[in-house]
Amino acid sequence: MPAIKSIEELKKIRDQARDMINLRMDNETKTRVVVGMGTCGIAAGARQVMLAILDELKKRNITDVVVTETGCIGLCQYEPLVDVIKPDQPKVTYVNMNPEKAREIVVKHIINNQVVDEYVVPNV
């Protein structure tokens, strides 16, 4: 992570952290998004993916989604990984995510309930 160069950058980081805490409040009726933040995930860009998801949710004023993180699940070759878990629906695992794909997942899957099959984990 680059060095913080201004008080404005520090305030932005603080606000993002507050947003993440607010989005993490558990509620079983909410959609959950779980980002793989193990060492391999972080090295592959998971932090930027998570920030893109949080930003897109905030930009669209979506407040009924809980965003959390998890450690390594052993699928390092597919990192960054993102699980979308909607109430009463099977979990969907997206692979090789980047910020642009993450934003697309927010719009298509989380908001419009359309799984983006081309990003889903292949049968392994």
Task: Please give a structural write-up.
The protein is an alpha+beta fold and 124 residues long. The chain has a single domain (26-119), classed as Glutaredoxin, CATH 3.40.30. Helix content is 40%, strand content 15%. Strands 2-1-3-4 form a 4-stranded mixed β-sheet. Strand 3 and strand 4 (92-94) form a beta hairpin. The longest helix has 17 residues, at 7-23. The chain is globular, with a radius of gyration of 14 Å. The mean pLDDT is 87.
List keywords for this structure.
single chain; 124 residues; alpha+beta; Glutaredoxin; four-stranded mixed beta sheet; 40% helix; globular
In DSSP terms, counting alpha (H) and pi (I) runs of 4 or more, how many helices?
A: 4
Could you give the order of the helices and strands?
HEHHEEEH
The average pLDDT value, as a whole number, equals 87
Structural shape = globular
> Which range does the strand content fall in?
15-25%
CATH topology heading:
Glutaredoxin
Main beta sheet: 4 strands, mixed
- Helicity level: 40-55%
The CATH architecture term is 3-Layer(aba) Sandwich
By DSSP, the count of extended strands is 4
Major beta sheet, strand line-up: 2-1-3-4
Whole-angstrom Rg: 14 Å
User: How many domains would you count in the coordinates?
Assistant: 1
- State the separation between the terminal residues, measured CA to CA: 33 Å
The secondary structure category is alpha+beta
Low-confidence stretches: none
CATH class: Alpha Beta
Tell me the CATH superfamily: Glutaredoxin
Give a summary of the structure in a few sentences.
It is built from four helices and four strands. With 124 residues, it is of the alpha+beta class.
